[in-house]
User: Which sequence fits this backbone?
């Protein structure tokens, strides 16, 4: 068997043609194709007020800006994430406050969030680890009780649902990533979904320097007329990125179904394997399965045993609080520490068919 990697980059066969059309048009920057991508992703996946951006990190930063997070405010997040989630908080001059996670899922612990709230808390930033939705009802009631905003980091969760609602239609702000190895890849790219039309309109303006493109006509002098009132950024998606996104949206749901089927197969086959402790899975939500993770005993031996058979198994994202910029390991995150010691992820992506999944399961069952 050739090497089975942990991730893949999916490019739909139509992409070549669709991106070439944009190149032919020479209209490379943000235009009509970006709007088409936004409307299609909303219709196909039930997202709300989608604003396409140049990365998931930009989406997170813009969400914090729109949420009014500023100097000295506190934002509660898990340490089980990629550094982007924490860095954008620092970028706003705010303070990342790390809550513990649920050992069984890798998602933020609602009980821990409650303990971390202070008078300075402005927002809660849950991360749907591996694409498995957090306990949104419980997070929502804490937010409501304390007047906090919710910003979902859904970088792993495009296509996930919580109580039948698509992630991207639930909270004040939801942030997606379309970076190269995500389920919907545009190379780099992201999207911010907002609950309100007002935030959507603000996001549209702020993603391009604070200029509202549609309401800033070109004057007789040939220059666009505008008057920037608030700080904006260069965060927009461009047309050739959107063309790739549009092409890759074709068949997205079928590809997601395939991931779910692979995950269900893994769960059935691995649940009784000694030394493996599967993550918890509640029936009221559907994971987007960007990752398939579990806890494993003797992790290094497990990784080596799989590598010797050409299968890449890997830890994904070690706790981010360990970085000096976040002040180093927080001793009170006890579930995080346990999770760090045993988490492992095995391949689940577009190239994993039944033959490969069967092979992976067989190798794991042979032991390590
Ligand atoms: C949990 C999480 N949040 C945010 C990001 C940042 O997304 P991007 O790379 O599109 O900026 C990533 C990227 O991998 C991520 O895994």
Assistant:
């Amino acid at each position: 068997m050739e090497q089975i990697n942990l991730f893949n980059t999916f490019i739909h066969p139509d992409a070549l043609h669709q991106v070439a059309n944009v190149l032919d048009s020479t209209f490379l920057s943000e235009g009509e194709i970006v709007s088409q991508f936004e409307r299609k992703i909303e219709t196909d996946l039930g997202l709300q007020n989608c604003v396409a951006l140049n990365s998931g990190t930009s989406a997170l930063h813009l969400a914090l800006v729109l949420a009014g997070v500023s100097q000295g405010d506190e934002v509660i997040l898990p340490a089980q994430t990629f550094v982007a989630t924490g860095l954008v908080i620092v970028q706003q001059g705010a303070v990342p406050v790390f809550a513990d996670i649920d050992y069984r899922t890798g998602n933020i612990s609602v009980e821990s969030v409650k303990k971390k709230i202070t008078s300075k808390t402005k927002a809660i930033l849950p991360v749907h680890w591996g694409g498995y939705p957090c306990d949104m009802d419980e997070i929502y009631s804490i937010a409501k009780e304390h007047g906090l905003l919710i910003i979902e980091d859904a970088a792993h969760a495009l296509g996930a649902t919580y109580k039948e609602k698509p992630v991207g239609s639930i909270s004040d702000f939801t942030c997606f990533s379309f970076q190269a190895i995500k389920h919907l890849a545009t190379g780099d790219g992201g999207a911010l979904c907002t609950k309100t039309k007002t935030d959507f309109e603000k996001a549209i303006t702020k993603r391009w320097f604070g200029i509202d493109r549609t309401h800033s006509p070109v004057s007789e002098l040939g220059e666009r007329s505008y008057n920037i009132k608030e700080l904006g950024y260069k965060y927009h998606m461009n047309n050739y990125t959107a063309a790739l996104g549009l092409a890759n949206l074709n068949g997205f749901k079928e590809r997601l179904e395939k991931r779910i089927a692979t995950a269900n197969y893994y769960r059935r086959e691995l649940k009784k394997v000694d030394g493996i402790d599967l993550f918890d899975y509640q029936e009221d939500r559907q994971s987007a399965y960007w990752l398939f993770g579990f806890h494993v005993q003797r992790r290094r031996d497990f990784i080596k045993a799989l590598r010797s058979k050409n299968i890449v198994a890997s830890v994904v994202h070690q706790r981010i609080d360990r970085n000096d910029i976040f002040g180093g390991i927080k001793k009170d995150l006890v579930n995080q520490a346990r999770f760090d010691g045993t988490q492992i992820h095995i391949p689940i992506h577009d190239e994993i068919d039944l033959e490969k999944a069967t092979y992976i399961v067989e190798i794991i069952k042979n032991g390590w």
